[in-house]
Design brief:
Strand content: under 5%
Order of helices and strands: HHH
Mean pLDDT: 82
Helix content: over 70%
Oligomer: single chain
Number of strands: 0
Length: 96
């Protein structure tokens, strides 16, 4: 295969990749819009106020934050003594 032919094929492939990336971006935007529309339907159906939405969002953020803090604490406990008491308890082994 000649260098010119390879370069030509590379150019075509790169153009196809660019087109597919643009299509992916467009589809991701469409998906987000559809999800937002579904959420709006639910909000309207149940007449959820903006104050209630803000409260629900804050609760969700707090839950995520608490879960992340808990996970981080478990990592610290595990790494500090080199054994995980919960895991060892499950397999009936004494953690020393």
């Amino acid at each position: 295969m000649s260098v010119e032919r390879i370069n030509s094929q590379l150019k075509k492939v790169r153009e196809q990749i660019a087109q597919l990336q643009a299509k992916e971006k467009d589809l991701a935007e469409q998906k987000q819009m559809a999800e937002d529309a579904e959420a709006m339907k639910i909000i309207r159906k149940y007449k959820i106020s903006s104050e209630r939405l803000q409260m629900l969002n804050k609760l969700s953020e707090d839950e995520v934050r608490n879960l992340l803090q808990k996970r981080e604490q478990e990592k610290v406990e595990f790494s500090s003594d080199g054994c995980n008491p919960n895991f060892l308890f499950k397999i009936n082994t004494i953690c020393t």
